[in-house]
Specification:
single chain; 6 strands; 179 residues; alpha+beta; two-stranded antiparallel sheet
Amino acid sequence: MAEGGDRAGQTPPARPLDAIDRDILRMLQTDGRASIRSVAERVHVSRANAYARINRLIDDGVIRGFSARVNHERAGQGASAYITLKIVQNSWRTVREQLQALPGAAHIALVSGDFDVLLLVHTPDNRTLRELVLTRLQAIPEVLSTRTLLVFEETDLDPVAGQGAATPAQGTAPETDEL
C-alpha cells in the first residue's frame, strides 16, 4: 500500500469514521505490520472488507503512511532536542522547506504562543547538535531566534486512543506478520 492522501492532486472531504474504521486505526497504530487477515479477524469483517477499508483510509488521507518506532539512541542518534524558533511573519513555507532538509529533523510544527515553530531533532551527539543550531538553523535568514531544549529521556505513549499507557522509548521487535 502506498503513502496516503492526495492521490489525484486533491484531498477528499473528511468522512466520519465508524467503529470498525476506528478499531482498524487503533490496530495499525499499535502494529503497522499487522496482516490483512489478522486485522479482519480482530475487527470481525472479511479480508476483502478489511483491505477495502484500509485502502479507503489511505486514499482519504486518514492513514498517511506506515513507519517504525525507532530508539534513536540505539540507532546512533544519542542527542535529541526540541528547538523553538521565532521566524519572520509569513515565512512559514520557506522556513519549513529549509527545516525539512536538515539532517536529523524528525518533526516540525507551526504553533501559536511565544514562538512560531517547534522542531524536534535527533543527532549523534551534542557537538553535532550545536553545529546544527549555530551554523544551519541560525543561518536561515527568516529565523529570528532559537531556543534549544535538550531531551534527557523520552517515553513513547501507547498509540491506542484512550489508554495513555506509556512504554519506554527502547523499541521492541515488531511481529513478522506483514500487511
